[in-house]
């Protein structure tokens, strides 16, 4: 790591701490040449392969932006969206892959969004899964109802 002050090609790590819920490491460094101290943040790169074949870095903000549209007019806060985006990033990082398709990100969004707001979930799913007819909506609503019944039965046990 080059020193940002004197551009010396080496530095010594003084302290390391995890940050951002363990997704990154903050390192405090000191230059052996000039004695200057500085911090670095290290993260494992995660790239998204878009449908067009373009590869770009994963962005929580893009996840939030896409989900925000489905949540318009719903009682969902920015903090809720930030938590959802973090859960999605953690889920895709757990795959162990450094590159992930947009399709897999969409699948990772569906579960947390369903738990957050079912109407927003239906909106997102209708676009993401390309609902073509009322039957597609009915099937998704039927699945939501069946899950409600299953949760109610599990809660009674």
From TrEMBL:
Keyword DNA-binding: yes
Cofactor-binding details, from the entry: Binds 1 zinc ion.
The protein's required cofactors: Zn(2+)
Record carries keyword Chloroplast: no
Coiled coil ranges: none
Any Gene Ontology biological process: negative regulation of DNA-templated transcription
GO molecular function, one term: DNA binding
Basic and acidic residues composition-biased segments: 7-20
Zinc finger (unnamed): 3-34
Segments for region (Disordered): 1-20
Signal peptide: none
Residue span, ATP-cone domain: 46-136
Alphabetic keyword roster: ATP-binding, DNA-binding, Metal-binding, Nucleotide-binding, Repressor, Transcription, Transcription regulation, Zinc, Zinc-finger
Pfam family, one: Zn_ribbon_NrdR
Annotated InterPro entries: ATP-cone_dom (IPR005144), NrdR-like_N (IPR055173), RNR_NrdR-like (IPR003796)
Purpose: Negatively regulates transcription of bacterial ribonucleotide reductase nrd genes and operons by binding to NrdR-boxes.
Similarity comment: family membership: Belongs to the NrdR family.
Name the record gives this protein: Transcriptional repressor NrdR
Protein's organism: Microbacterium saccharophilum
Lineage start: Bacteria, Bacillati, Actinomycetota, Actinomycetes, Micrococcales
Gene behind this protein: nrdR
């Amino acid at each position: 790591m080059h020193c940002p002050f004197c551009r010396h090609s080496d530095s010594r790590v003084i302290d390391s701490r995890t940050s951002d819920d363990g997704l990154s490491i903050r390192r405090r460094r000191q230059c052996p040449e000039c004695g200057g101290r500085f911090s670095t943040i290290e993260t494992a790169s995660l790239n998204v392969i878009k449908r067009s074949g373009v590869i770009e870095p994963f962005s929580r903000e893009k996840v939030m932006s896409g989900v925000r549209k489905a949540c318009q007019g719903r009682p969902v806060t920015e903090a809720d969206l930030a938590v959802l985006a973090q859960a999605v990033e953690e889920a895709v990082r757990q795959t162990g892959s450094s590159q992930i398709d947009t399709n897999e990100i969409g699948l990772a969004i569906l579960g947390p969004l369903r738990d957050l707001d079912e109407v927003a979930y239906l909106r997102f799913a209708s676009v993401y899964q390309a609902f073509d007819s009322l039957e597609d909506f009915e099937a998704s609503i039927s699945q939501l109802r069946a899950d409600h019944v299953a949760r109610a039965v599990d809660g009674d046990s």
